[in-house]
Each structure stands twice: as C-alpha cells, then as structure tokens.
C-alpha cells in the first residue's frame, strides 16, 4: 500500500529523531498489518519520510508526486525544499510533525494551507516494571549549560536524586533503563517539531516538569514563530514553566500533585502506533 523512502545517511550517529521516525513508522505499519516497501516503487502511495538534501531532487524525481506525502523530515530552507515549495501543485502534501511547524510552513515559507497536513510518527506504549529508585531524569537538548547547571543546583537543594542524559550521547537501551527507574522527568530542551524522546517518557507515564520555550528563531527574525519544547501536551502530562524565576513555585505545585498526572493518556489518545497509522491512511485517502 505504501512505499517508504528514506536515507540512512541522514540519521548521523547515535540515537536520533530522524532514526526514530523511520523505525517507529516501520514498526507501526507492521503492527497494523499495512503493506509497505522500503525504498522501492511497489505500491500506489509514496511517503518520502526523509532525504539527503543534496541528492533528493535527482534521486526522487520519478516519484508520482500526486500520491506522495513529503516529510516529516522536510526542511524548507534548502534547495530541494525550495524546489518543492515552487512546485507544490505536483505532490499531495507536505507533512508537518506538529501545529507550530505547520504554521511555520504556511506563514513564513510559502506553502499553501491545503498543501500542509499534521502527522506525527507513532509512539509505542511499553509494558514495563517501575521501581522508582531515582527521583528524576534530566533530559538536556539544545539548551545552554547554564540552564542545565541551574536545574542541577535546584534539584540538589531539594535533596532529590537524579541522572542526566544529553541528546545524541545515549543509546535507546540506556534511555529505557533509566525511564524504568525514575519517578519523574525534568525537560530542559529547545523547540521540538515532534519530540519523540519526550513522548517516550509520556508513554512510560512519567510526570514531566518542563522548562519550556516560547518561539522558534533558528533562521532569524524573519522566520520566527511561536513554538514549544512539548508541542503535544495537556495538563495531564505535568507542569510547564518558562522563566528561571518561576522554577521554584512551579516545581512545588508539580511535586505536590505528582501522583495525579497521567502523561500516557495523550499517547494512547493521539500518538499510539494505531492512531498514527489511522491518521496516515486518512491523509492518503483524502
């Protein structure tokens, strides 16, 4: 039913978001018994998950664009991204992995609203034992060392135990082992287009304390849009704050209510393998 197109060379080293998108999509389609091929033109529908920017146009020029979804690893600021924007009548849609990315594509990059859809790669809901021998897992990605140090000092003042992992420097097994041991997670992150690692924390039903951000500005003021570290979020997931001055009061509220959160619910309702595949098929068939 679906041809999956992707480039392993795009992943880089270590555990990465692009790698998880491919892995989770393959697992989800397999679980839901949807026929698919890998980098072969076998079926009607094409999903160009990701591409190596410099060779994508040449390599994928023969795809049937009117049955092709492009993304979620779509970068509108390279030559291939601009080519697609200038020729958007020839493909079905570009996938944005969240609403804030869709807003960027439409309001700042020139994609038409009817050419952009939101779809997130599925997240597996694991069956695990929780032993809670560590209070907190700190997840640090694309933020300053000073923010990390402030957070570590705060937890030390609270006499809470913690482990720290940084994006790109851990294995999936390391990550899962730690998640089974901690009581909650402290997120110190930049903007996330989807946030697969954070959503895996949700799937483990870990309450999240999030030092959030307000905007994406990686390409300068001209392209700045409102954004978040946790683009998929409800108050069931935990507590967010934005400024260092808010940390203490926000944490006290969070910790007082730590047993009332149910972060797994948003995964089950919106982001599970079955929900992700259902949404993907709907987009193809619209």
What does this structure look like?
With 286 residues, the protein is an alpha/beta fold. It is 34% helix and 19% strand. It has ten helices and 13 strands. It has helices at residues 17-31, 56-59, 79-86, 99-107, 145-157, 172-181, 196-203, 247-256, 264-271, 273-285; strands spanning 2-5, 36-38, 45-48, 68-70, 93-96, 116-118, 134-141, 162-166, 182-189, 208-211, 215-216, 225-226, 238-241. The protein has a six-stranded parallel beta sheet. α7 (196-203) packs across α9. The two termini are 15 Å apart. The mean pLDDT is 92.
Concise description?
With 286 residues, the protein is α/β, with parallel strands linked by helices. The chain is 34% helix and 19% strand. It folds into 2 domains: 2-122 and 272-285, Rossmann fold (3-Layer(aba) Sandwich); 134-270, Rossmann fold (3-Layer(aba) Sandwich), CATH 3.40.50.2000.
Topology summary:
Layout: E1 2-5, H1 17-31, E2 36-38, E3 45-48, H2 56-59, E4 68-70, H3 79-86, E5 93-96, H4 99-107, E6 116-118, E7 134-141, H5 145-157, E8 162-166, H6 172-181, E9 182-189, H7 196-203, E10 208-211, E11 215-216, E12 225-226, E13 238-241, H8 247-256, H9 264-271, H10 273-285
Parallel strand pairs: 1-2, 1-3, 3-4, 4-5, 5-6, 7-8, 7-9, 9-10, 10-13
Antiparallel strand pairs: 11-12
Instruction: Summarize the biggest pleated sheet.
Output: 6 strands, parallel
Order of helical and strand elements: EHEEHEHEHEEHEHEHEEEEHHH
Task: Provide mean pLDDT, rounded.
Answer: 92
CA radius of gyration is 20 Å
Q: Write down the domain tally.
A: 2
Shape: globular
The protein's oligomeric status is single chain
User: Which percent band covers the strand fraction?
Assistant: 15-25%
Distance between the termini: 15 Å
Class per helix and strand makeup: alpha/beta
Helix content: 25-40%
Unreliable residue runs: none
CATH architecture of the largest domain: 3-Layer(aba) Sandwich
The CATH top-level class label of the largest domain:
Alpha Beta
